[in-house]
C-alpha cells in the first residue's frame, strides 16, 4: 500500500498500474490508465500532491476472509481552481499467488467517481469593467453585437451559391466560410458563427439566403465609435509575447487585452480574473460533485471626466481634417474631451474588418491610427500670452509699452545674416495689448530677446512645470528647447511659439488656466471624482494682477473687430482667447505646412477652455479656418 501511495505522489502511473490485480487490470490498458491520470491531472494543473493514510486497514464488509483490506486515505492537491481535499478508500486483495494487489475501482483517480464519470474543468467568465463618461454614458461597454452564422443542414441544394452570396455581402472569401464549416464540432443542426456584423453590414438583408441566421452575442462595444477611438482604444486577443511578458501570469491563449487608449491604460483595473471550477460529471453531463472552485472576480468600472456629448461635437467639427481638440474645465482641470482626427472605428476590431477597410486606414496619409492629442506640436502664436506674462512678471513689459517696428520684416543686426522675423500687420508703433490683438511676431521676438535666454526659460517654463502630474493616461512632456537656447535667433523664435517650443494640445490648454485662476496653474484630471476634491493642487506661476491683465488682453483678441480671434465672438458669451499659425519648414525661404490653432475660454462662468488645432490650413484661411470649426461647437455648448 505504501508503495502504491508513493508512486501516486510521484506521478509514477506505470508503476501504479503494475500493482493492479490482473483481473481488474484487464478492464483498462496501461496506456489508457497512464494517459487518463496525466490528462486529468495536467488539465487541472495538479501540483503539491499529498496522500496520507488515515488509519489501520479495515477488512472489507463483504469479505469473510483475510484476503481483502480497505485502506482509508486523504488526498490533497493544489489545482487551477484551488485546493482539492477528499477522503477515500483503496481496496487491496491477494491474488492467486498470495501477493497483495490493488483492486481497480472507478474512484482510482478521485474519491467519489463512479463508472462513466469524467472530470470537467470549467472557466467561470469574469466580465470586463466598463469605461464611462462623467454622466455615466458608455465609452467602452459590455453590450451585444449581431453575428451572422450558418446552420449547415438548412443550406439546401444551392449551398455553394448561398455561401458565395454571403461571402460577397460580408466582404470575406468563400474559403473562409468553408473553413469554419469544416470544424470538427460542426453538425447539421448547429449554428456555426461566421462573422460579427459591422454597422454597415447589419443593415444588409440576409433573409433570402437559406440556412443563414442572425444572432446577438455579448461583445465589447464602443458607443461613441470614431469620435472617441483614440480615447477608448480597443481590445484584442493577447499575443504569445504579451502573455509571456506578464509577470503576473494572468493571461492565457484566447484572453483579451487592451491594445490602445484607455483600454490599455486602465487594463489592470478593467480586466477581471476568470474563475475555475473542477467537477465530477456523470455520463449524462450532470454534476455529481464540485471538487474545487475559485470564483470569478469581475473587472472594475472606470469613470472619466469626459463629457461624451462634447467629445462627439468636437469630433464632428474636425472629422474631415487632420487635427485635434482638447477641452477642459479651467477651474478644476477636469478634461472634458480628448479628440483626434481622422480616426477609426474601434468596433471594427471586435466585429472584424475587411482587407479593404484595413488598407484604407493603414495607407491613409492622414494616419487615422495616430493619436494627435498626445502628439507634440509647435504652438505658434498661441504661446505669445505666456511670453507676455513672463515679460510682465519680470518688469520687462507693461501693457502700454510700445515698440517701434518698421515694415513687415525685422532682424536684430547683421549677425543674423539673411534670417529675419515677419509679421502680418505693418504698424510703426505697437504696444503689448496691440501686439496680442494683431499677433505681432516681431514684438514678441524682441520681448524674448530683452528678457534673455535664462530668464525666458525659467519664467515660461513655469507654465509647463505642473502639466505632467501623475495622471494615469500618459502624455509626452512639453519642451521649450531640445538642449537649451543656443542663440538669439532661437530665442526670438521661441518668443512667438516657434523655434524648438513643442506642446501637446493638453499642455497648451492647461497653460492658459493661470489666466482664469489668479495666476494658479491647474493640473489635469481624467479620473472622475465626486465632490470638491478636484482642482485643489494647483501652483502659482504668475501674480493675480498679471493674470488679470493677460485675460483682459485675450478678451480683446476675440471681441475687438481687429482681433485675430474676432470670428469666435458669440453674442451673449464673454469669450477670450488666442489664435495661432505654426509654420513647419526647414528653411526661411521655403513655404511649409501650416497648423492652425485656437485657444479660447469664457471669462464669466469659466466652465470651458478649448484648444483646437487643424493641420494643413495653408490656403484655407490659416487659424481663421480653425475658428470657423470651433464656433458652432462653442455656440452649442454655451446654449445648453
Describe the protein's architecture and organization:
The protein has 640 residues and is of the alpha+beta class. The chain has three domains: 2-120, NTF2-like, domain 1 (Nuclear Transport Factor 2, Chain: A), CATH 3.10.450; 131-294, Penicillin-binding protein 2a, domain 3 (Ribosomal Protein L30, Chain: A); 338-353 and 372-639, DD-peptidase/beta-lactamase superfamily (Beta-lactamase). The protein is built from 22 helices and 26 strands. The radius of gyration is 36 Å and the shape is elongated. The mean pLDDT is 91. This is Penicillin-binding protein. It is found in: Membrane.
Summarize the structure.
With 640 residues, the chain is of the alpha+beta class. The chain has 22 helices and 26 strands. Helix 12 runs antiparallel to helix 22 (623-639) and helix 15 (384-394) packs across helix 17.
Q: Percent range for helical residues? A: 25-40%
Q: What coarse outline follows from CA principal-axis ratios?
A: elongated
Instruction: Estimate the mean pLDDT confidence.
Output: 91
Strand content: 15-25%
**CATH superfamily name of the largest domain?**
DD-peptidase/beta-lactamase superfamily
CATH architectural name of the largest domain? 3-Layer(aba) Sandwich
Our count of helices gives 22
What's the CATH first level of the largest domain?
A: Alpha Beta
Kindly state the number of beta strands: 26
Largest beta-sheet characterization:
5 strands, antiparallel
Query: CATH fold name of the largest domain, please?
Result: Beta-lactamase
Oligomeric state of shown chains: single chain
How many domains comprise the coordinates? 3
Low-confidence stretches: none
CA gyration radius, whole angstroms: 36 Å
Instruction: Give the class from helix and strand content and strand pairing.
Output: alpha+beta
Distance between the termini: 83 Å
Keywords: Membrane
Domain NTF2-like N-terminal transpeptidase: 2-117
InterPro entries: Beta-lactam/transpept (IPR050515), Beta-lactam/transpept-like (IPR012338), MecA_N (IPR007887), NTF2-like_dom_sf (IPR032710), PBP_dimer (IPR005311), PBP_dimer_sf (IPR036138), PCN-bd_Tpept (IPR001460)
Protein name: Penicillin-binding protein
Amino acid at each position: 500500500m505504501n508503495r502504491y501511495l508513493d508512486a501516486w505522489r510521484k506521478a509514477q502511473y506505470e508503476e501504479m498500474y503494475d500493482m493492479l490485480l490482473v483481473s481488474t487490470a484487464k478492464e483498462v490498458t496501461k496506456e489508457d490508465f497512464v494517459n487518463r491520470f496525466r490528462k486529468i491531472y495536467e488539465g487541472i494543473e495538479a501540483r503539491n500532491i499529498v496522500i496520507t493514510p488515515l488509519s489501520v486497514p479495515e477488512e472489507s464488509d463483504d469479505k469473510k476472509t483475510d484476503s481483502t483490506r480497505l485502506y482509508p486515505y486523504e488526498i490533497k492537491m493544489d489545482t487551477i481552481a484551488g485546493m482539492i481535499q477528499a477522503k477515500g478508500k483503496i481496496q487491496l486483495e491477494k491474488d492467486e499467488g498470495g501477493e497483495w494487489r490493488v483492486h481497480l475501482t472507478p474512484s482510482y483517480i478521485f474519491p467519489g467517481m463512479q463508472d462513466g464519470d469524467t472530470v470537467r474543468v470549467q472557466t467561470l467568465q469574469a466580465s470586463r469593467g466598463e469605461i464611462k463618461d462623467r454622466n455615466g454614458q458608455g465609452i467602452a461597454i459590455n453590450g451585444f453585437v449581431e453575428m451572422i452564422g450558418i446552420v449547415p443542414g438548412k443550406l439546401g441544394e444551392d449551398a455553394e451559391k448561398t455561401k458565395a452570396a454571403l461571402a460577397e455581402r460580408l466582404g470575406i472569401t468563400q474559403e473562409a466560410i468553408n473553413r469554419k464549416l469544416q470544424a470538427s464540432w460542426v453538425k447539421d443542426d448547429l449554428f456555426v458563427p461566421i462573422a460579427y456584423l459591422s454597422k454597415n453590414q447589419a443593415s444588409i438583408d440576409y433573409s433570402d439566403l437559406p440556412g443563414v441566421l442572425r444572432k446577438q452575442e455579448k461583445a465589447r462595444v464602443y458607443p461613441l465609435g470614431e469620435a472617441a477611438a483614440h480615447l477608448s482604444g480597443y481590445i484584442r486577443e493577447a499575443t504569445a509575447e504579451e502573455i509571456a511578458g506578464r509577470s503576473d501570469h494572468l493571461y492565457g491563449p484566447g484572453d483579451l487585452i487592451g491594445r490602445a487608449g484607455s483600454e490599455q491604460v486602465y487594463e489592470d483595473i478593467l480586466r477581471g480574473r476568470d474563475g475555475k471550477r473542477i467537477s465530477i460529471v456523470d455520463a449524462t453531463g450532470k454534476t455529481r460533485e464540485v471538487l474545487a472552485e475559485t470564483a470569478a472576480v469581475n473587472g472594475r468600472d472606470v469613470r472619466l471626466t469626459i463629457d461624451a456629448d462634447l467629445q462627439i461635437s468636437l469630433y464632428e467639427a474636425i472629422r474631415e481634417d487632420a487635427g485635434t481638440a482638447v477641452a477642459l474645465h479651467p477651474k478644476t482641470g477636469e478634461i472634458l474631451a480628448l479628440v483626434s482626427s481622422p480616426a477609426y472605428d474601434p468596433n471594427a476590431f471586435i466585429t472584424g474588418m475587411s482587407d479593404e477597410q484595413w488598407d484604407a486606414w493603414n495607407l491613409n496619409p492622414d494616419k487615422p491610427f495616430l493619436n494627435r492629442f498626445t502628439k507634440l506640436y509647435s504652438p505658434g502664436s498661441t504661446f505669445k500670452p505666456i511670453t507676455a506674462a513672463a515679460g510682465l512678471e519680470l518688469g520687462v513689459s507693461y501693457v502700454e509699452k510700445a515698440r517701434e517696428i518698421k515694415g513687415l520684416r525685422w532682424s536684430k543686426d547683421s549677425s543674423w545674416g539673411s534670417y529675419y522675423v515677419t509679421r502680418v500687420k505693418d504698424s510703426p508703433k505697437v504696444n503689448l495689448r496691440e501686439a496680442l490683438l494683431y499677433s505681432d511676431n516681431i514684438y514678441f521676438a524682441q520681448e524674448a530677446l530683452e528678457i534673455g535666454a535664462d530668464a525666458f526659460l525659467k519664467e515660461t517654463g513655469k507654465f509647463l512645470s505642473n502639466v505632467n502630474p501623475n495622471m494615469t493616461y500618459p502624455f509626452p512632456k512639453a519642451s521649450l528647447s531640445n538642449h537649451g537656447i543656443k542663440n538669439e535667433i532661437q530665442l526670438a523664435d521661441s518668443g512667438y511659439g516657434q523655434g524648438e517650443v513643442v506642446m501637446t494640445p493638453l499642455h497648451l490648454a492647461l497653460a492658459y488656466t493661470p489666466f482664469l485662476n489668479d495666476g494658479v496653474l491647474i493640473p489635469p484630471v481624467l479620473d472622475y471624482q465626486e465632490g470638491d476634491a478636484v482642482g485643489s493642487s494647483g501652483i502659482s506661476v504668475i501674480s493675480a494682477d498679471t493674470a488679470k491683465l493677460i485675460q483682459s488682453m485675450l478678451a480683446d483678441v476675440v471681441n475687438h473687430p481687429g482681433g485675430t480671434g474676432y470670428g469666435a465672438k458669440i453674442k451673449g458669451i464673454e469669450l477670450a482667447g488666442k489664435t495661432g499659425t505654426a509654420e513647419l519648414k526647414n528653411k526661411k525661404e521655403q513655404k511649409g505646412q501650416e497648423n492652425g490653432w485656437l485657444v479660447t475660454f469664457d471669462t464669466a462662468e469659466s466652465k470651458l477652455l478649448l484648444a483646437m488645432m487643424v493641420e494643413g490650413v495653408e490656403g484655407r484661411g490659416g487659424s481663421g479656418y480653425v475658428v470657423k470649426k470651433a464656433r458652432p461647437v462653442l455656440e452649442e455648448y454655451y446654449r445648453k
